[in-house]
Amino acid sequence: EEVEEYRTELEGIKVRGKGCPKPIKTWAHCGCSKKVMDSLKKHGYEKPTPIQAQAIPAVMSGRDMIGIAKTGSGKTLAFILPMFRHILDQPELDEDDGPIAVIMTPTRELAMQICSECKKFTKSLLLKAVCVYGGTGISEQIAELKRGCEIIVCTPGRMIDMLAANNGKVTNMRRCTYVVLDEADRMFDMGFEPQVMKIMDSIRPDRQTVMFSATFPRQMEALARKILNKPIEVQVGGRSV
Ligand code: ADP
Ligand code: MG
């Protein structure tokens, strides 16, 4: 009951699905490592926004999630902070250098923005994030991927090309266990569903999958059911515009 009151106080957070952990009030109990906490402080992120307050503990608990909140509400940190924890929890496998986490987003600009947000944290964590998007030559991106990385931020079309490039020798999804679909509504408005599904099919089914969107129209529900496993739904503000 107390938890419900706090969720309401945080701009009306609504939660659907069983077993959602309670929201966090500060970064103190967010489950991030010391290095991540230092970077949060350094970049002036004083406390979690409402979507971060509820989505971070939900995703940190290992559950699939659908996060719905308007543009500018801080959705990026809500999926990259649990991503760092997920990556740092994986055993080191030196024979594989494909990504542990893949973030899909509809446009090149968004991919670049998310990648630069990741880079605020990856340096001190000794992790590498690579941005993969179309509308520009593929060879430089291939060269970067061949050097290995833990995180790929991509647009779906170019990611498909990348998986097929050099007979599949550029990168692979064998150790990928954390997947984000960001701006999922726009991704489907732009007709990327077939590409997204193809990429999903190349990723192990025991992955953790999270989907973020400003709106959650009915048409997206069928798709969410196909790619998410017993998701928690976290919503701040209205469900669809
Ligand atoms: P969304 O994806 O929901 O549109 P973003 O993740 O792009 O939102 O964040 C919007 C802006 O808010 C960015 O400039 C980001 O740096 C800032 N921001 C995110 N989280 C916080 C926070 N906890 N405290 C202060 N600023 C934040
Ligand atoms: Mg965003």
UniProtKB/TrEMBL annotation:
Functional note: Component of the 17S U2 SnRNP complex of the spliceosome, a large ribonucleoprotein complex that removes introns from transcribed pre-mRNAs. The 17S U2 SnRNP complex (1) directly participates in early spliceosome assembly and (2) mediates recognition of the intron branch site during pre-mRNA splicing by promoting the selection of the pre-mRNA branch-site adenosine, the nucleophile for the first step of splicing. Within the 17S U2 SnRNP complex, DDX46 plays essential roles during assembly of pre-spliceosome and proofreading of the branch site.
Helicase ATP-binding domain boundaries: 56-234
Family named by the database record: Belongs to the DEAD box helicase family. DDX46/PRP5 subfamily.
Region of the whole protein represented: 63 to 303 of 694
Name of the protein: Probable ATP-dependent RNA helicase DDX46
Signal peptide: none
Motif Q motif, residue numbers: 25-53
Domain DEAD-box RNA helicase Q intervals: 25-53
